[in-house]
Amino acid sequence: MVPLENYLILSSIVFSIGVFGVLSRRSAIVVLMSIELMLNAVSLNFIAFAAYLDPERITGIIFAIFVITVAAAAVGLALAI
Question: Which is nearest to 38 in space by CA: 61, 19, 65, 20?
Answer without folding.
Answer: 19
